[in-house]
Structures are given as C-alpha cells and as structure tokens.
Amino acid sequence: xxxxxxxxxxxxxxxxxxxxxxxxxxxxxxxxxxxxxxxxxxxxxxxxxxxxxxxxxxxxxxxxxxxxxxxxxxxxxxxxxxxxxxxxxxxxxxxxxxxxxxxxxxxxxxxxxxxxxxxxxxxxxxxxxxxxxxxxxxxxxxxxxxx
Length: 147
Prior knowledge:
Elements: H1 4-29, E1 32-33, E2 43-44, E3 48-50, E4 58-62, E5 69-74, E6 80-90, E7 93-101, E8 104-106, E9 121-131, E10 134-138, E11 141-146
Parallel strand pairs: 2-10, 4-11
Antiparallel strand pairs: 1-7, 3-5, 5-8, 6-7, 6-9, 9-10, 9-11
C-alpha cells in the first residue's frame, strides 16, 4: 500500500543524510595534510635561530615571541638569508604555508602568529642563504609552541 506520509519522511531522511554527507566531505576535503618540502641545495650549519632565541634545529619557544612576527638570524653573519618557507600546523593538519622573501615575516602577513596555542608546530624550511653570490641552504628549524 502506498502511504504519502511515509514517502515524505523517507525522502526527508535521505535528504538529511545526503546533506550531512556533503558537509562532512567538504569539511574533510578542506584540511591540508602535512607534506615534506623538496629543497634543493647543499645544507650548511650556520646557526639558524629566531631573533632573541638560541640557535636550534628542534626547540620550544614561547608564543609571545611570535606576536609581532618572526625574524630569522644566523650565527654565521657572513651569510645572508634570502628566503624561507614557513609552515604552521596543529596535530596532523597544515593550516598555513608561505614562501617568505627576506628573513622577516610580520604578523600582519601571517595572522596565525597572534593566535598560537601550546603544542602548535612551526616549521622553517628551505632557508636559502647567500655568501659571495653562492646560494646554499641552512638547516631546517622545527619549533613547538609553548605558553
């Protein structure tokens, strides 16, 4: 027997199911997975650090340090930083990635720097350094944010 009310409820349930599936798919599809960068060049240890912090390859830095931006420096001042790639992630989700020309990233160009949480990760990769017109790479820096 045909029951119009049952068909209507069945169609409504299907519609709700389809809409929920679409929302879930679009939410998951918009997340970026962390992937490694391919940086070409010779890697040289020149003491890469965030200005005001000790040089490190894996370190923890207070979130207040990043409020105005990031300024990279080298212990070996005979080299100059020409560009770097910064990545920001929490857990396994890449939230921001940008190639920066020069050694400074201001917070107005990366608003996440004002909204960091403990445990967030900032990765400084592909740091191009120049000395006597020869381009090399500095070591990568992985920073865990602490409060």
